[in-house]
Specification:
Elements: E1 15-19, E2 26-33, E3 38-41, E4 50-53, E5 60-71, E6 74-88, H1 91-99, E7 108-122, E8 125-135, E9 156-169, E10 172-183, H2 187-191, E11 199-214, E12 217-230, E13 235-247
């Protein structure tokens, strides 16, 4: 998968969701969800300590609107989504943040995100683009680990990926995708870059082929090339090849 390389892992929790009655090609929903702690770290080393907004007095809110139509023989889908949540710091963490240089003086943080998806399918070809932007979203796990800097400020996050698949017939399909996740430094991050540089961009190029032996067995081969870059100009690359299968019943 590409968690952290085009989207973040969803922060799942209990929710109450209302979906508007369908009156045509447009669908709308809104949900009130169990909130989660919004987390950052003081540094990125073995001695790091968490910087957490853990007092949760209000729910997380989220919503989506989507539509799908056939245009010129192609199936086209559009989706827009949003999310927002507030969390407060405890008294000790609040005081520590306020006393620090470039620290959070508000005593609370707000995470919010916007996302959109466009999909087009015609014949055996399917293409999808999806992207997101927001604050305090994190780069791997939503609202977790690196959503905040070391003194409680929200970081800006964004990412996107594009994916294409083609059905060759006979149960064989090809797929390729490319995407990235990135974040911006806060003033605190920039001032402390020499001691703990923040990761700036993560990119993943992935190609795969799969073949359905029958309705119960699928064989898959995949190649992935990853590039990570930090704000201090350090970079890392890696390649991976995987082969496996799925059983369906």
């Amino acid at each position: 998968g590409r968690i952290g390389y085009g989207y973040t892992y969803a922060n799942f929790g209990a929710q109450i969701k209302w979906t508007a009655p369908s009156t045509g090609p447009v669908n709308f929903s809104i949900s009130m969800e169990d909130p989660g702690k919004i987390v950052g770290q003081s540094t990125y080393s073995a001695s790091s300590t968490s910087v957490t907004a853990s007092q949760l007095d209000s729910p997380r809110w989220a919503g989506s609107i989507s539509t799908s139509n056939n245009m010129g023989g192609a199936d086209v889908g559009l989706t827009a989504e949003w999310m927002t949540q507030n969390a407060d710091f405890t008294g000790a963490q609040r005081a520590s943040n306020a006393q620090a240089s470039n620290g959070n003086n508000d005593g609370d943080v707000t995470a919010f995100g916007l996302a959109g998806t466009v999909s087009v399918a015609t014949g055996g070809l399917s293409v999808l683009w999806s992207g997101y932007t927001g604050e305090a979203l994190g780069t791997f796990f939503a609202l977790d680990r690196d959503s905040l800097d070391g003194v409680g400020n929200e970081r800006d996050n964004d990412g996107w990926y594009v994916q294409g698949t083609y059905d060759l017939g006979g149960g064989t399909n090809l797929g390729v995708s490319y995407g990235e996740s990135s974040q911006d430094e806060t003033a605190y991050d920039t001032a402390n870059r020499s001691s703990h540089a923040l990761i700036e961009d993560r990119t993943l190029l992935s190609a795969m082929v799969w073949h359905n032996i029958n309705d119960n067995l699928r064989l898959v081969a995949e190649y992935g090339h990853v590039e990570d870059e930090w704000f201090d100009s350090v970079s890392r690359e890696s390649d991976a090849v995987s082969v496996g299968g799925f059983f369906f019943w």
